[in-house]
Structure formats: C-alpha cells, structure tokens
Specification:
This protein is mostly helical and 40 residues long. Helices cover 18% and strands 0% of the residues. It has one helix and no strands.
C-alpha cells in the first residue's frame, strides 16, 4: 500500500446531540442542577 485517503465526516456537528444527552442525563439535570426527586 502506498496511499491511504481518509475523508469525512462531512457537516460535522460539535458536541453531544440532544438524543445522547437524554440518555446520559436521565434525571434531566444536564445544566448541573441536581433534581432531588432523582435517586442516585
């Protein structure tokens, strides 16, 4: 092999998507404020 071309991603969005934030922050406190109703 003499060449390797790597391309993409095109139109990349920076940062996590809203869908992935909802999966990670299941209690809805992605802004750093803890929801007391959420169990740890």
């Amino acid at each position: 092999m003499s060449n390797l071309d790597v391309t993409g991603p095109y139109n990349q969005k920076l940062g996590p998507s809203e869908e992935s934030k909802k999966l990670i922050y299941t209690c809805g406190h992605s802004d750093g404020v803890h929801n007391l109703a959420c169990t740890r």
